[in-house]
Design a protein that fits this description.
This protein is mainly α. It has helices at residues 3-17, 24-49, 58-75, 79-103, 108-127, 157-180, 182-192, 194-199, 204-230, 235-238, 241-254, 261-283, 290-305, 310-318; strands at 138-139, 232-233.
Amino acid sequence: MNRSHVALAALLALLLVLPALLDRYLLSVMILILYFAFVGQAWNVMMGFCGQLSLGHALFVGLGAYTAAALYQHYGIVPWLGMLAAIAVCVAAASFMGWLAFRFGIGGTYFALLTIAFAEFTRIGFEHFGWVGGSGGFFIKVTQQDHVDLVNLRGHPALFYYFALALAVLGFAVSAWLLRGRLGFYFRAIRDNEEAARAAGVDVLRYKLYAVQISGALTALAGVFFAFYYNNLFPEQIFHISRSIEIILAPIIGGIGTLFGPVLGAAVLTALSEGINQLLTMSGYEVPGVKQILYGVALGLAIMFMPGGIWPVIARRLGFQRRDAGGGDDAG
């Protein structure tokens, strides 16, 4: 077991006992960190591993959230089964979007614009979809939080903390599996030089579709978590491009194409955002858009001084081997 594995095991052990050490507010902050770490890992599969830039990833969050929430509210289908339906819907949407783009050679900036267009079309559609509340919002019945109902995902915030932790571990494990397997090798070959990969016999269209489908499936689970944690869904909120930008910031700042990058990026951004909000609240000042300003400054600094992200720099300093965006030889 190398140094990075020891550090990972220690981090996981700490995260398992953390709810017993934190108050309700800090627990909610940790839930946000784990959520953004997971959804960042999901986006990282598509962009960091395969080089397909999505700026409309909120599409999959929203579809997953609405699918599971509607099935639960209208038909009493438990969220765990709703997750399967959410994954199916998101994989179908990812397949259609990916096939449409890759079959007709849409890539690069144009593919990114296509993802935005899909998210916006879907947002407009859901604003007029009365079955899920339209623009007025869709609300899930809230029950007493003192009673933990694992089957229906109702209960104390600690329940959602462990749910978010399980998702973060899942995202990390799937990403690690991809990086070490043949599928991840093909993804990185396409990312680094698509024409060379095609010349070497890689079915580029198929593997780019796989990347989009895997990313969409994982993001669907983030949508289910979002729906049952917040208990309300508004198309303008969940499909908006700002939601997509929030998703991609953690892996960009932490390190695109790395395993620990999205986790570290989510921790840094969430801690900064919540810290600034607390300071402003205590001082009695209100600054509109402070979160967006903070994210913009953080992104600018990262691009200027650490274009590969924070994690690769830390990994080298700590002597961790890492499998970075350039195809290095590590787990980090």
